[in-house]
Amino acid sequence: xxxxxxxxxxxxxxxxxxxxxxxxxxxxxxxxxxxxxxxxxxxxxxxxxxxxxxxxxxxxxxxxxxxxxxxxxxxxxxxxxxxxxxxxxxxxxxxxxxxxxxxxxxxxxxxxxxxxxxxxxxxxxxxxxxxxxxxxxxxxxxxxxxxxxxxxxxx
Length: 155
Prior knowledge:
- The protein is α+β, with helices and mostly antiparallel strands.
- 27% of the residues lie in helices and 32% in strands.
- It has a seven-stranded mixed β-sheet, with helices on both faces.
- The longest helix has 18 residues, at 17-34.
């Protein structure tokens, strides 16, 4: 079991080098779970201009991330949620998600949407516990059988 002495959560952008490192690990994780089927999601996971990124550090080491981007006038889309496997089960992803939701509300948004994969059971559990509910697949995820989408009212 990994012992945690300190946790720090920061807000940044997609230009952050630690975010790039975490995204590479996320993409590897998704490819291991989904194989070549993951390749069709690449065009939707671009992070070069995301202005709202949250990173979590444990004992000064980056171990998790998440982001959001504008979905419509009232909503954000939660993107690129990830925590290293050895750090899961410590509520770090829940803290990242809460920080993203708080930031979205501060920016004037009152709803969130997100997509995850059927094989990402940890994510499904996280979003369900956090109050997200299943909704129809939206946008580019319509017709993608491996995808499930969620929605939540933030305020």
